[in-house]
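subagent[fold] <- orchestrator: predict structure for attached chain, return tokens only, no commentary.
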Amino acid sequence: MRVSDYGAVESEHWTSADQVADYIEHQGIASMLAFAGQQCVGQLYLQEYDPEFCEPGGRVGHRPWADFQIAEPLYFNGRFLTLGCYHVGWMPDNSRDRSLWGQGIGTALLEAVIEWYRAQKVIDGLMSWALVTGCKGLLQWAGQMPYTVYQTHGFQEIKRVNDPGLAADIADIEPEEATENLAVLRVMLLSVDRSTP
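subagent[fold] -> orchestrator:
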């Protein structure tokens, strides 16, 4: 995302073009966009992980975190970006084109972020609070990926977190084929050893 994209693409989690500029300056990236021709068809929000923030993964105001409230800070050496919401099919007017769901746009966004990450030296890793498999309704509601997608792309599970707040939010979502508790999140991490040239 460029500063000039603010307002021209879906900007739900951004307060201003200045905020986009600030993220680009401090993180090296604000979000990753996907286009079909001239139309933006997807956005993956990114937020630098701050261990002092007591709800990692939770969305506060217009911070582009995933929509989870997890009051359990994790501590790492280095700088990590948290993968936030995948807004596939969201338009600048915040309408949604659901025909774009299930077309691989979210996976393409993830792969583009991984490619960007591997090519730079500022960020030490990528993190995600990943959901269970087998529940399309949950994934679409949260704008997230199942943990198996992250595993396929080299992420390792480092922790599981039971989020009672999420359980309350999704009480009406049918589990479909899920065989696990929908409110259990897997903290997934992708980190490259940058100690060797």
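orchestrator: received. Logging for downstream: The domain at 3-191 is CATH 3.40.630.30 (Aminopeptidase). Residues 168 and 183 are 9 Å apart (CA to CA).
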